[in-house]
Amino acid sequence: MPFPILKNYLARLSHQTQAGTSVWLDEEGRALGRFFNCTMTSAFQPLRELQSGKVLAFEGLARSVSKADEGLSLWRLLDHAASDDESVELDRLCRMLHAINFFRQNEAGQADLYLNVHDRLLSAVSSNHGHAFQRILDALGLPIERIVLQLPTVTTNQSWLLNYVADNYRRNGFRLAINVNSVNEAIGLLERLHPHSFKLDAGNLSDEAAAANFVTLCHAAKIRVVFKRLDTPAALQALQRIAEATGLPIVAQGYLLDKPLSSLAVANEAESRIATAA
């Protein structure tokens, strides 16, 4: 493990029991946490270069603990139960768990870690929220430059919140990915926010030509376009046509390629299979 401070922290955690802390390790070395009497951990879904199968990054997802490594989404379970303040607390716990569980694995290599900012946090977030997570990373000796925070889609009336939160995270050293509903929405945000990444739904590409032009535009601006929710053969065929039209690498993420799993090793082993299938 190339992060000695994290290694020492995990060694201390290994001697603590579930009753003695809100974060502890299971017998496999995974960091677990507790929220609303739910035991949770991390699952990771790869973001891949479609043509080569190469893993560029992973998205961290909060899951209930399951021996079959197929736990339920904690946000779906708790979204309507938690208040705004409790949502902030859950968000911070999720990010901490994901950072620990990601960087403790040698298979993380040089890949980035994408972490979600839940849409309820846009209005609940305080001015020091980015600083709070930055302090956690510093305390664990983890590289902030490999963290990409994913901002949710917003309505037109919420655009000022997106500006506010984006500025907050940028001032604390984070790169940003923005989820968008359409290419037109993304173009409106490109010059204003110039994020590290845009995330578009691979199953909802009504205008492939516009998507191809947007990929080319973002490539010139050194912005990554990630096609998320690649879950069907029809969506894969659409991305293949976009790749052919642009002549550029296409980055994709979805269940057609990978299930979210706690272990990164499985994703790395699947690289050649994904490239052959694509």
Task: Let me know the CATH homologous superfamily.
Answer: EAL domain
Provide the gyration radius in Å.
Answer: 19 Å
Query: Could you tell me the strand content as a percent range?
Result: 15-25%
Q: What topology, given as strand order, has the largest sheet? A: 3-4-5-6-7-8-9-10
Structural class call reads: alpha/beta
Low-confidence stretches: none
SSE order = HEEEEHHEHHEHEHEHEHEHH
CATH architectural category: Alpha-Beta Barrel
Outline: globular
In DSSP terms (H or I, runs of 4 or more residues), the helix count works out at: 11
Helix content: 40-55%
Q: Count the beta strands.
A: 10
Task: Write a structural description.
This protein is α/β, with parallel strands linked by helices and 278 residues long. Helix content is 41%, strand content 21%. It contains eleven helices and ten strands. It has helices spanning 4-13, 74-78, 84-103, 121-124, 129-140, 159-171, 183-193, 208-220, 233-246, 265-269, 271-277, and strands at 23-25, 31-35, 38-49, 55-64, 112-116, 147-151, 175-179, 197-201, 224-228, 251-252. Strands 3-4-5-6-7-8-9-10 form an eight-stranded mixed beta barrel. α3 (84-103) runs parallel beside α5 (129-140) and α8 crosses α9 (233-246). The protein is globular and about 55 Å long. The model has no long low-confidence stretch (mean pLDDT 87).
